[in-house]
Amino acid sequence: MPVHGTIRYWAAAKAAAGVAEETYEAGTLEEALREARDRHDARPEFARVLQRCSFLVDGNPVGTRSHGAVSLTEGGTVEVLPPFAGGAR
After folding, report:
1. With 60 as the cut, is the pLDDT of residue 56 above it?
2. Is the pTM above the cut of 0.85?
3. Contact predicate 45/18, CB 8 Å
4. What Cα–Cα distance (Å) separates residue 60 from each residue in 19, 30, 42, 76?
């Protein structure tokens, strides 16, 4: 079931999205990211940056879990963290 929350973009993800944060209506992280990619489809760099990002959901690292298995909570927060300091993931 879809819930509402906030996606916060940091560093290169913020630059690629053109916004610092926006809302989502989704049940899983996979759905929220799909919604974000669709919203920013005119910004091809956004999809490329997302491929390299790490994610926190309500402060908890997603790690290697499938994004489709990560449930979102009402009023929750997804943090989109690109690699910092030029490091590779």
Report:
1. yes
2. yes
3. no
4. 22, 16, 30, 11
